[in-house]
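Summary for the lay section of the report: proteins are chains of building blocks that fold into shapes. Here we show the chain for Methyltransferase domain-containing protein and then a coded description of the shape we predicted for it.
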Amino acid sequence: MLGFVPGLGGVPKGRSCSVLRVEAAPASRKGLDLKGVAWKGLIGIVRAKIIRDAEQKHRIPWTKSVQWVRDQKAVLEKEEEALTNPDVDYPEYFLRKFHSYEDGNLDVMAVEELDPATSALACRLYEPEIVSGDWEYQEAATELRNQFLEQIGSYQSLYGGNVEPRRILDIGGSAIHSTEPIADYFPTAKVTVVDLSPKYLALGVVRGRQKGLLDRIDFLHANAEYLDQFIPNGSVDLVCASFLLHELPTTATTEVLKQVLQALKPGAGLAITDNDPVHDAKIPKLVLGMHYLTEPWKGQYSKLDVQALLEELGFVDVVINQINRKHRAILARKPD
Ligand SMILES: C[S@@+](CC[C@H](N)C(=O)[O-])C[C@H]1O[C@@H](n2cnc3c(N)ncnc32)[C@H](O)[C@@H]1O
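The coded shape description reads as follows.
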């Protein structure tokens, strides 16, 4: 996710998210697992603060939003069943506890909280505008996405001859929070969301239907490390990846980027946005430690020299720009 997102291992699923329950970790053979209890307690405190700030400071209707997803249970299950690829083999790194959700990106609670948690992350970037009442939370989310889209637009006009991409992939596109702005920005394009979580994709279908976008956005349940099993080589005009890379170990990032290069048409672009390691280096150690515990691959991502990796794999014209105080855009293209 775009930073620390609150889940709470041990909270029974289906319980109201605003009710905080911290359950004791199982006692180890030698006695009580004090570290586990302390950890859950700390996560519980952070989680409660995030939800309180979201509802009170950022005016995000967290509880209502969670309830809305719960109300869609039957349709979500139907969509999930329809789009799930039974042949998908989940990699070990994806099955880990993540964002403190017991089942990571496959957790029902992660799906329920995805929308308000995504809004909260954008609001934390633009706290003064939100707190002063100048902006509502939706404007913070729009601003964050626009900063990335502007980078894509500038790169396109510099290296892409201003040709409108028609076939776009949004890898790690989840429930279309990143996909919708891309589809709006390129109104003639067809965008495919590729994601390993069928639960997020099912929510994406429901949200996409509500917004009348299903004729332009489709959904592929797949590991982006194996794009070539689904996407013909040299068939894509633009690949976007918003906040995917920090969720991957470097080995997986390398595989994904290799596959992206293969999928792109000659000359076509790759646009990534994610955390800026320069900002992360300024985060207090205790807080960063919590990030690493809830996002196990963030440390590898921060240390990775993405520019060198992209060039080594054969991408050209790699450009990296900071887009706000926490995030950067990475743009590159396949040689002509
Ligand atoms: C932090 S979310 C980003 C969601 C969205 N792009 C956004 O900007 O709001 C990262 C997404 O990547 C997905 N993901 C993680 N590993 C993946 C992989 N190997 N292949 C495809 N999707 C993956 C997760 O399921 C999750 O939905």
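Put simply, here is one thing we learned. The two ends are 33 Å apart (CA to CA).
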